[in-house]
């Protein structure tokens, strides 16, 4: 019921909603790329609160750790925990085959660490 709470009105409509939608879009793209277990660096384009677009680079430290530049957060690191299903195949002949494969795939816990580029570790 956030819509009824006056404290959130600026973030649920107009420019505030657009800023939040852009942030969620960037987070969604990052999560897909992290879960894809990419062995090499990747970049995303993200729109900031003032409307400018920035390139954020993710450089591999190891299988689950990435250095991020520029660092868009407070602190030195962010640890992300999520659950997902590991699929052996990356393409499927039908939606039904995909759904069946997802149902049978075991649930796994994934942990990623994002580091400020200057952070030790």
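-> sequence recovered:
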């Amino acid at each position: 019921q956030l819509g009824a709470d006056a404290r959130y009105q600026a973030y649920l409509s107009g420019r505030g909603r657009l800023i939040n939608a852009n942030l969620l879009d960037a987070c969604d793209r990052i999560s897909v790329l992290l879960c894809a277990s990419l062995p090499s660096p990747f970049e995303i384009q993200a729109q900031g609160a003032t409307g400018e677009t920035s390139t954020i680079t993710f450089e591999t430290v190891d299988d689950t750790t990435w250095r991020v530049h520029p660092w868009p957060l407070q602190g030195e690191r962010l640890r992300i925990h999520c659950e997902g299903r590991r699929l052996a195949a990356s393409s499927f002949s039908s939606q039904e085959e995909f759904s069946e494969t997802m149902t049978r795939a075991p649930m796994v816990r994934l942990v990623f660490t994002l580091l400020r580029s200057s952070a030790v570790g």
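The first helix runs from residue 9 to 12.
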